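Listing 4. Sequential folding, example run.
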Amino acid sequence: MRLTLRLLAIAAFSALAVNAAAAQEPGADATWKELKPDVFGEQAITEASPLVRLTAPGRAEDAAMVPVEAEVMLPAGDPRTVKKLTLIVDENPAPVAATFSFGGQRHDVTLGTRLRVNSYSYIRAVAELSDGSLHMVARYVKASGGCSAPALKDEEQALKNLGQMKLRVVEDGKAGDATQASRLSKLQLMIRHPNYSGLQMDQVTRLYIPAKFVDNIEVRQGEDLVFSMVGGISLSEDPAIQISYEPTGKEIDVHAADTDGRKFESELKPAG
């Protein structure tokens, strides 16, 4: 009897917790229902998919730089591969933050970056597999003003360092050499760029700064594609991407471009 009452109490408490959470987010998924057909058409999406995991803070410390990490992992023996990963911030003026495409036969991908969040919103990670199926998870993040927050650097300084890159291999939190990296290594890329959203105001002239952001990145290991990215204004200033990859010891090359047509390049050569 006591066990039954205890289970009923737990169930009631869980129901209250769910209802309380829903009460804090009334209609929070309404935007997604309107947005989904524009991004994915009528294609079915498996929601709360066990194949995808998304880590994001419940309340962001800095709405202009919200750290997120998405992981796609297929079970052993699954013949499919991971082809694309799209990050979406429902309530942003341009909700599709970035779409990443992967080369090779990727059965697992871990990707981290920083996003702008303009108001309380769901952040979504949608993975596309080689069979065309879509799998999604979402996390609700409390943040506001990320797209209109002033740039951390003044425009003159930002343009002076425009396109400078930091590219390295990270293994167990330490920088290393690509030839000595394990399969669980991550490639870390950062590009100096203000990534102006078009919603930020010049603090001197009080005029809006025109949108100008990194919209294309391609990273190759030798001739093989590690990933390519098509991005928008929801990527933070100084875009930073960390992605798992399988090192071959070949030279890693980065080609990037922004909406003004500027092109940026970098490389990481194996030691020796």
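-- end of first protein; second protein begins --
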Amino acid sequence: MSQHHRQSPAQSAPPVIDAVVNALRGFLIGVVELIPGVSGGTVALVVGVYERALAAIGDAIGVVRPVAKGEGVQVSARFRALDWLLILPAGAAMVFAVFAMAGPLTAFVTDYEQTARSLFFGMVAVSVSVPLSMVYRPDLTSKPWVWLLFVLGAVLAFIGTGFTAAPVEQLNAPIVFFAAMVAVTALMLPGLSGSFLLLALGLYAPVMGAVAERDWAVIGTFVAGALLGVALFARVLRWLLDKHRTVALVTMAGLMVGSLRALWPWQDADANLLLPASGAELAISLLWVAVGGAVVGLMLVAERRLRHFSGTRHVIAEEAH
């Protein structure tokens, strides 16, 4: 990630306004990232900070290299050049949102399990369109074999979540650390929800419960895993999207489809799938599925319109010059 990345329109705003807006963005992304099925990366796109955030992550990782080589001057220069007007307010607001909302969301998932699964099922089902919409269209016809990767990803995710979808009764540090490493990558990918990955692993309720109860041992382990995940995967993800974009996105979509197994509204305590209910119960579940899909659909429409508006404004500015 280049340190001299393209500035976003928000960076031309006065510093105080930029910081306040970034805090609001961070709070919204933090709240949404707690909801299985809604991607924090998608929300970052909607609020116009996705590319700037990826650049900031890349620049922050770039500070580590001079440290390892003992190049103090470069460390100081790169550290000062970081996008602090984004990192500090957005990061602090995200942390606040996580601690403020973890309790209510845990109670919702625990007390209204079928409703929660129905809602999240609709959200994830519609979110599958996000990675597919980012694919270079001609590749889908010139490389038809990529659909085999879609099917393979779906099958593997379906089988995998069959073993892990049941809630974990007792957390242990290695599992929490590894889950955080994997889940944090979803924050950088539009359409993939970190909380959904935790849910698919059976860790959503216990991890959110630990956050709500301020279990600092679990929280510290999760944060350490998340930081290592960002350091290891940020550049790998960027490389995959740059060099093998279609393969990565189609496979990702397949994994999301197969992982819907974890959110099937009708399942027993051991995560075995059951036939749909009938009558009023079925109607209510389908209503919540529709609500979840509509929420994500509205977000995607808003993101596309904002992106179109930003592109139009950029063209007008270029013509004015």
